[in-house]
Structures are given as C-alpha cells and as structure tokens.
Amino acid sequence: MSTLPKRYTITAALPYTNGPIHIGHLAGVYVPADIYARYLRLRDRDVAFICGSDEHGVAIDIKAKKEGKTPQQVIDHYDQIIREAFDAFGISFDNYSRTSRKIHHETASKIFIQLHEKNQFIIKETEQLYDSEAKAFLADRFVVGTCPICQHEEAYGDQCESCGSSLNATDLINPRSTLSGSKPELKKTKHWFLPLDQHEEFIENWILKEHKKDWKPNVYGQVKSWVDNGLQARAVTRDLDWGIPVPVDGGEGKVLYVWFDAPIGYISSTKEWAKKKNIDWEPYWKSQDTQLVHFIGKDNIVFHCIIFPIILNNTKEYILPENVPANEFLNLEGQKISTSKNWAVWLHEYLIDFPEQQDVLRYVLTANAPETKDNDFTWKEFQTRNNSELVAIFGNFINRVMVLKRISDNEEFLSTHRIVNVLRNLGDITVRSSLTDYCFKLSETLLLAQAKFLTEIEEKKDIFYTSSRGVGESNIVVSSNISPLLEEVFSQEICTDKLDKLSAITVKLPTDNVKIPGIYYFIFQRLSWEGVNINQVISTSNEFTILMDEDSINVAFEVIKNLKSL
C-alpha cells in the first residue's frame, strides 16, 4: 500500500486445544504478533488483534478417545488453560474466540455454501484409508506412517512434523491406524475437493511476483516450492462426527476439514469482537484500506499462503493478507519441542514456577526469536540474559537516568509520583482550529468593548472565545470567522499584536490538581521536548488552554493524550 492503512487486522494462529501453550508457540507466533499490535496501538492506529481456540479435527477426537472423555470436555479443558495463560502472560488480544461457537459454525458454513454455489469445488469419489476393525475412515491423524519426503517413520496423514511437509493419508509409506494399530485398506468415499491446481496463476502473480521482495524468504521459498511441484486438488471434507457438518446435500456424516474452517475462525472472531463493540466487522476483512497480517509458524505456511487465500479470493469479497511473517521453530536445550514426549516449557507452568516474571520470558524469547532459522532455548541463556542484560545493563541504565534526573530526594520523587497520578486522570481534551489572537493595550473603554462583543456573540454557536488580562495589556482569542465582528467592535482600541492560523487544546484537570506542585511544568516540559512552541496559556483552577501554531496541534495532542497512560 502506498498510503497508510485506515485499519489493521492482525491474526495470530489459532492454538489447537489438544494441549497447552509452550514457549515455542510464544516465540514463533504470539509474542511477535503482540509486539506488532502494541506498536500500532502506540501510534494510535485502528487495530483488531484476533485469535481463538481451534477446536475441531481428528486430533481432538483422538485425544478424547485416549482420555475417555468427549471432544467437548477436551476442548473446554484446554481452552481454559490456554485462555488463562495468555491473559496472565499479557498477550493483548482484542478478541479470543472459539471455533466451537455458533458464530463460527455459521460463518464457515456460509463460506462453504458460497463456494459450493459458485462451483468452486470438485465433488468426487476416491479411495481413502479405512480401518475395518474400527469401522472408520482414517483421516489425517488417525493414520501414521513413513513420510515419503524425509522418511520420518511417525508422519501423520496430514503433515510430517519432522520436515513440515503437508501430506495426504494415502501418501504415507506403510500406513497404520492409530485406532487399532492395524494396516488400513482402501475404500471408496465421496468428498469435496478444492482444485488448487486451477489457481496456480493467481498464487504465482500474487505472491511470487507481487510479494517477491517484501515477504520473508522462508515463506516465499516454501510457496514457490509448492507451485513448482504443481498444486493438487485438496479435500476440504472429512468422514468424521466431530466438527462442522458439511452444510449441503450429500454431506451427511461428513464435516469440514479443520484446515478449511480454522482460518475462517479469524473472521468469526472478528465478527464476535465487532458485535461486542457495536461496530461493523466488514471493513476489517473486506475494505481495501485495511492491512491484513497473519502471524504463524512455518508449518502453517501452505494453509495461510495457498489454501486460505484461494478460499478468500474465490468469494470475491475478502481482502488478502499484506504479509504472512512465519517464523521458524524454537528448540529446547538442543532438542525439538515435543508435546507427545512432554519435552516443552509449558506457559501455564512457567507462570506458576516464575511468578511476576512474564517480562523476563518475553524479553528472552524476543531476543532469541527464530525469525530466519530454528533457534534454541536454554535455561542457562535465560539466566544469563536476565542477570547480565536486564538486571545489569538495563537496570544500570535506569539507575543512571534516575541519578541524572536527580530523583534522589524522597520528596521530589513523591511529588513526581503524585503528578503522574493526577495526569492519569486527565479529563476531556478539546481541540479547536482556525483561531486568531488579538493583543490590546489596556484602556478605560476596553472592558466596555469586551462587554459589547460578548453581547453580539451571545447567540452564536460553535465559536471560541477566551480572554486574559495582564498589567498593561489584554489578550482575546476568537474563532477566525468572527474576527471581522471583533475588529469592528474594538475599532477604537489599540491593537498591539495579532496572530492568525492558531489552534488550541483545552484540557480538563482533576479537582485535586491544585494541591500538587509542578503539574504545569511537567506538561509544558514534555511539549517542549517535542518542539511544540506555546504562544499563550489561559488557565482556571481545573482547566487550561494552550494556544499554538496549527502545525503543532497534532504533536501536542499526542503528547497530552499519552500523559494519561504514564
């Protein structure tokens, strides 16, 4: 985009509710996404930071069967753990939803029907792996075998976690059922396929040409590899009883593929957020002046850069992501993080073991972020960065700043603290433009002229007037559109100065501000730091107005607004 977007939709990959969050998830997705969202908010941008629990798919069903629970019990359990951990850690989502909610089922079903009615799917009967002992088709993670790409012997039917390749169950060498352990057989079944091969030109133009220079090399390279090898039609339905039912005729006993419905969870979560705020959700997904950014791990590149964009593009309604900054993996003590082997630092456990140490972990994961390659987390490095960098270097920096500012005296420190507390409770901030400032020499008739002028403007609305009186002169500031009237009424008075093209900021102060010395000094000092030249200050006990050049008004407004968040 050549100009700044009006709004930003930031998505973080939906965590899967078959287990808790670990530090690999934080480093790869949630901390960088949170940093970006916080940065944009500090710049006063319109941001929707969206996430939620991914609660469908085969892995949930498998987890439920292993634990002797229902899928609903599994997702409720882990959603609570994940949700509370994110909140305690301080990830600043604007909305965190669940794909099991009605609003998501309705949204995903609507998009599926929309594509179905546009003939964007191919419906065909294919041979799929079937467990005759369990009497069930083996979709995705119901089947494991040897990866045809890297020869890893524990690859799943949808993806190899060793090399990250996206697979079909029938691609596996020596497949076996995770339900019974038996060797599956091939059996015919009907499914809806998204013909990715029909959209190669779209992907080539959009990513490989338009984003060749601004997307991360790992993302660009993986997409290029997929396109170079030729895209294939991908089934978007599954033979399962857990998930979103296929919402068209002939879909009985089938559900939407989790990787079809999960990214749509970003849209349904945005809808949910907008409904809470009583605003329109559509500009955040359908307006060309919105910037959409997906934060994901590298194992999700194909879904966010090929499958989901093709779905969005085929609707002819939704915008496409401006960027998909996928990170690499974070290892733990030289070994790949493994949830199945419990080789991980779980976020909810870290928060218990290291109370009030969220920022330390955030700092370490940011400093060691796996942006361009897989990185390693070690407890020795964690300790070193905390002691040497945060406590020693940063702590020493803060100490030196405090010394230089001479905040050693207890009374001065307490005074500054009181000022900050007052400023956090600033009231309304009013901005006015197109003002003119007149300076008149005091005279016996000046007050009479002022009284006459006030009578003349008594019935006028939406105008600005203020005055101040000194020893030898008086200033009157008015809206420029009534300047001719003022000059007529004050024609017999001596005008010593006149300034045009001014703006004013009026700030309401808390009533107890008069008890705290240094309020105005604190405010004016920070305005001066930003180069704001103050022409005039007019104040009462609980309100002050600052007059300045129009060019300075935006900077001054940001300075005063930020005082409330000190």
Describe this structure in words.
By secondary structure, the chain is of the alpha+beta class. The chain has three domains: about 1-120 and about 260-405, HUPs (Rossmann fold, 3-Layer(aba) Sandwich); about 120-240, Methionyl-trna Synthetase, domain 2; about 420-565, VC0802-like (2-Layer Sandwich). The chain is about 40% helix and about 20% strand. The protein has a six-stranded antiparallel sheet with strand order 17-18-16-19-21-20, with helices on one face. The chain has a four-stranded parallel sheet with strand order 3-2-1-13. Strands 5-4-9-10 form a four-stranded antiparallel sheet, with no helix packed on it. A hairpin with a 3-residue loop joins strand 17 (about 465-470) and strand 18 (about 475-480). The chain is elongated, with a radius of gyration of 31 Å. The chain starts with 6 loop residues before the first strand and ends with a helix.
Number of strands: 21
Fraction in helix: 25-40%
Which ranges are low-confidence, i.e. pLDDT below 50, for 5 or more consecutive residues?
406-414
Strands in their spatial order, largest beta sheet: 17-18-16-19-21-20
How would the global form be characterised? elongated
Binned strand content: 15-25%
For the sheet with most strands, the description reads: 6 strands, antiparallel
Rg result: 31 Å
Please count the helical segments: 17
- Total domains: 3
